[in-house]
Design goal:
Length: 124
Amino acid sequence: MYYCINIVTHRPNWANGVLLRSIAMPGESERIASGPGLLANRFQINDSHDSFAISRENGLWLTSKANALESSELVNTTRIGISKAQDLPWRWYLKSSRSVSKRAKGDRLPPISKAWFPKASDGP
């Protein structure tokens, strides 16, 4: 069984969540958490984390990026791995990331020389 990480952004029992699909981490393989199941597995997230509050105190939190991304750096594409509303463009990823589980049609994996890799200074 694979678990996923969904962040609910508003109130319970209302469609307002975000599925975290992948992450790149300094000093680790670019593919260690390159899909929802791999991401949850990397951080040992499972059903015991249901309704888990995101906070520093709980060891899981979100932080803003120091500088905003240019829209040209993001790829907006349709959803994957679902049976309904597949045509909705509700999926985004960093074009220069090599940690994307499935790229949009025609978007090729960037060469290592042009890829984005996280630095320790990108963290909190």
